[in-house]
Design brief:
single chain, alpha/beta, 5 strands, elongated
Length: 395
Amino acid sequence: MAEKRTRRRFTAEFKTEAVRRLLEGGRGLSEVATELGLSTGQLSTWRTEQLAAGSAEALAVRKAEEAETQRLRREVKRLEEENVILRKAAAVFAKGIATKFAFVSAERGNHAVATLCRVIGASVSGFYAWLHAIPTVQTRAEAEADLRGHIDRIFAAGRRVYGSPRVHAELRREGRRHGRRRVERLMREMGLCARQGRRRVPRTTNSRHDLPIAPNLLLRNFAAEWPDQVWLADISYLPTGEGWLYLAAIKDMATREIVGWSMADPLRAELGIDALVMALQRCRPGKGLILHSDRGVQYAAADYRLVLERHGITQSMSRRGNCLDNAPMESFFASLKKEHIHQAHFRTRAEAKAAVFDYVEVFYNRQRLNSGVGYRTPTEARVAMSAEAVMPIAA
């Protein structure tokens, strides 16, 4: 396959949410750019353009307030962490320095060494001197305590949505070889479990229409060898204090990456097209792509089919009333809701949009390990598969 060197393009919706994340999140330009896989120059240009146009003016006014709020939250988090440490360390304050250092060693998987030493009144340099002076061979209890600390850290870094398979996979990525059953047992003992979902409520698919229906070309065979061979599309809903917010998304079945998305209220016919345009701009697929969806009116509409035809995309549709024909998209929406949406209450649709942008572009695509691609992130999978596609064939 020939190598494709194309410049990434972004929709106005993506740019708006990226600038919103920069202005409202209390983060630096470099941090947000790295999270989204952008250059700082790109993000800076978008910010300048939106501020000049006035579309982000209200956000800029609130930036100082948001920064102060973030500072106060960090302070509260620091105090809460110190209180946790104080409760754990209550029995060691009257003990000797060696006992205190042993406590720091046992808890360093859960808290920073500097924080532990500050709370119990010990020296960081003294702790490391003590640590280097003791034998390096751990007892089973010490090894298990150390593993518990790493499990707790990975579970927290994974936004508390990882079950034991993903925690085990992340440990292996870090070079820590432990049995999966052991990790599962410790997580159960620690009370760590993946979040559970809720039932769906509103309908987002209207298949009662007289528009053309494409044949089901996949028949639940969702396998794809390379990126941009098979895409799946679907629409779901998000509850907010202002009413429902509807989300259209497109998933690449080779990489499991969400390549296109769009959000709107009310549920309008153009929503599916907007997500498709984002995917086309981001990936620039070649000929031969199959895009599968349900029979909803948004996907059967003439305008949607025209976009597919212009880009040489073959359309496929599920059988009537059969959600399993588009199961991977159902799985994505279930993960989004149980891992993120159902853990918060959004007062406004704008808050929900920011949360979805964070989950999809920062967490799901770039951080969350996906079992379907060998416990890699979707972004890692695309990079690896693209590299394999352009490797020269040996003579």
